[in-house]
Amino acid sequence: MNSSPASVVGILDRLSIGVSRISIRHGHTKPKAKKPQPELTGFRVGLGEKIWVHNHIATGMIIYSHNAKLKRDSQKGLAQIPFTVKKQKPPVLREDYWAPLCLIELPKGQGVVGRSVMQKLQEFRRRHELEWGYQANKLMAMGRRERGEVIHNQKTNAIADIAAVLSGVGKGNLMWAKGPLPEATEVTAREAEAQEENEREAEKETEVEATSQGQTTTPEAGDAATSTPATKAESKPAAAPRKRSLVNAHIYWSNNGDLYWARKWTENVEHHLGLPAHVKNHRFQTKYIFNAPEESGSLIDDAEKAEATKEAQTEQEQAEKKGWFSWLGGKSGSSSADARA
What we know:
The protein is an alpha+beta fold and 341 residues long. It is built from 11 helices and 7 strands.
């Protein structure tokens, strides 16, 4: 025999229609808008202040990196190269094929801006690889391998993208800053935004306190109290909107002809040929195409003197040489003359 349930819950469990369970949604006390905390990101100090643009000298592939040297098995670098056709994407990054194209340097303390610039550069490069625009028909008419070579060759597009990103193009680009920025500042863009939010919250709190005090006063006193802030607001001139400016950037080129692939450069970008004294990279080779430095007169004179001394030495050596039969009579000259004699 089946034993009868000893409790009401057991009886309800055996019924075909169960008891509906009512759940209570707990309220959230945390604010929806979180304050930025850049100190919790875990980035090393100075990350983003230097952006290295590495170029494949044979195919024109481009890799953006924060490191001056690419590791042979760098997964972050290989992930930036798209797969087009079999055996066209390199399995490793060989040091003899990759060389720095340029170095983008931002002011000290602007690592957040540099990381934003690098994100925009990678985003634009991916759009070049996937969105062909007016070249779509031409690329579709090519073979897979030939089309893959064109897609991999992003050198000229990368230089144009650098000019565009440093000029503030792109949604959310942190190159735009409110007010002029000094060359070296310790306040990052996120800290500035957090400071502005704190100021706004403080202003809101003062407004709430002012309204609460106005409600507690008598009508006559309230009219007088409300009239004084109005007169102050009328007398106080409206604050002019803060002008936005672009963060200064320096580009150190390995080839002074590459910067002309971009149509226009903004005034906040300064171009240099060769690396600065505080940056070392043995793979960075400087090449002159335009405005090659003229050789000084002293260098030319030294070269001419060296050539003259070399010619004199060769003439002296030829004069000291003797013919094949010089051991007979001690005569110098050619062997044919001695034989005829």
